[in-house]
Amino acid sequence: MNVFDVDAIRRDFPILSRTQGDHPLVYLDSGNTSQKPQAVIDALSEHYSRHNANVARAMHLLGAEATEAYEGARSAVAGFIGAARPEEVVFTKNASEALNLAANTLGAGLQPGDEVVISVMEHHSNIVPWQLVCERTGATLRWFDVTDDGRLDLESAERDHLINERTKIVSLTWVSNVVGTRNPITEIAAKAHEVGANVVVDASQAVPHQATFVQSLGADLMAFTGHKMLGPTGIGVLWGRYDLLASLPPFLGGGEMIEVVEMGHSTYAAPPYRFEAGTPPIAQAVGLGAAVKYLEGVGMDAVEAHDHEITAYALDKLQAIDGLTILGPREAVERGSALSFNLDGVHPHDVMQVLDSRGVAIRGGHHCARPLHKRLGHQSSTRASSYLYTTTAEIDALADALVHTRNYFAPRFGG
Fold it and tell me: Residue limits of the Aminotransferase class V domain (predicted)?
């Protein structure tokens, strides 16, 4: 597609033509999971109807076709993120598993006195695995605080020597799933590498929305998930520098991750297979490969530009609503498309239910980021998250529904 045409893109997504009663579906929960284009749906159907078999094991035609499709998806993902080679791409079932894989392998050598650095804005999937590994090893968990506007407090971190000679691992989100902040990963990674630390990046909210070149990002390991980038559920990715992956121990034991098994000991396969025990998510990988092809056809620069335009428009519309408070950055600068907010005196779950009755799908809760909400002084929030198929008309519908909700619960505003 040479020109970004959101109406043409929307025609590729069957679900977007749905209605809820008298209301058209306004889907603003893409940060939770994205919708799927027909090309991805067709790829899954084609695989199951014509090529279904296990990979690597079966020597018949279907097995060869399934293996070719699975490894083709690996190559497609590697090209999409600028990996040096396909073997740097490990398939997991989601980003949470990828981050657990990182914590349990990279963190296996931690000792008392070592430090792991995360941040207050992390998704629980990038907090709990590091808590667990620190509890097991005796290492110390430390974290970046955030400023009142939801950005990493880099000044305090520098003053407190957060990253120092004891730091062994720094694991950060690239883009916050709550406040949308885009963090300066390359700058932080440079500081981490100066003291010999490895850098893990949760890119679940970044890779779907912007061009990604892992070799210049500064990460040593990077996790993301397929279902937020037009692909199926059940497929995630851990990218890693090949030399680092080759130095890490296995995470799970089973078929295909081994080289030789004896009763007394085993040797392990080279990456990525070392980390892909058992039957992998074959059809899901094929679907992710189709999603990558679709996004490349649109162009990630165009996706990012559209996201920026929609986010800026949404920020303006929502800030014009009396009684609405936005969490995090209020300008579309170094910011992703996740936009969280609260209506005065109205619980996010009530907001979510009323909006749903008008066909507007959003999310209410703490979005698996309770520490961030606590730091910002909110029990929870309502989140609208857009993507390449979102229109300004849908943002208008969101704003109108929020005014209706506010007035319903707070008549003083004119309801």
Answer: 26-398
Distance CA 241, CA 222 (A): 9
Domains of the chain: 6-30+299-409 (3.90.1150.10), 41-296 (3.40.640.10)
Tell the residue number behind the tokens 């619980």, with chain if given: 347
pLDDT tens, position by position, 99-112:
999 999 999 999 99
Distance CA 330, CA 400 (A): 20
pLDDT at residue 184 tops 70: yes
Q: Tokens 């008549």: give the residue.
A: 411
Q: Is the pLDDT of residue 58 over 80?
A: no
Residues 332 and 318: their CA atoms lie apart, in Å, by 13
CB 162 within 8 A of CB 144: yes
Question: Mapping DSSP to helix (H, G, I), strand (E, B) and coil, where does residue 293 land?
Answer: helix
Query: Which one-letter amino acid corresponds to residue 167?
Result: T
Q: Which residues participate in catalysis according to the annotation? A: 368
In tens, the pLDDT along 226-237 reads: 999 999 999 999
Among the listed residues 291, 251, 289, 292, the one whose alpha carbon sits nearest the alpha carbon of residue 269: 251
What's phi and psi for 138, nearest 5 deg? 85, 5
When computed from its CA atoms, the radius of gyration of the chain, rounded to whole angstroms, is 22
pLDDT over 50 (residue 244): yes
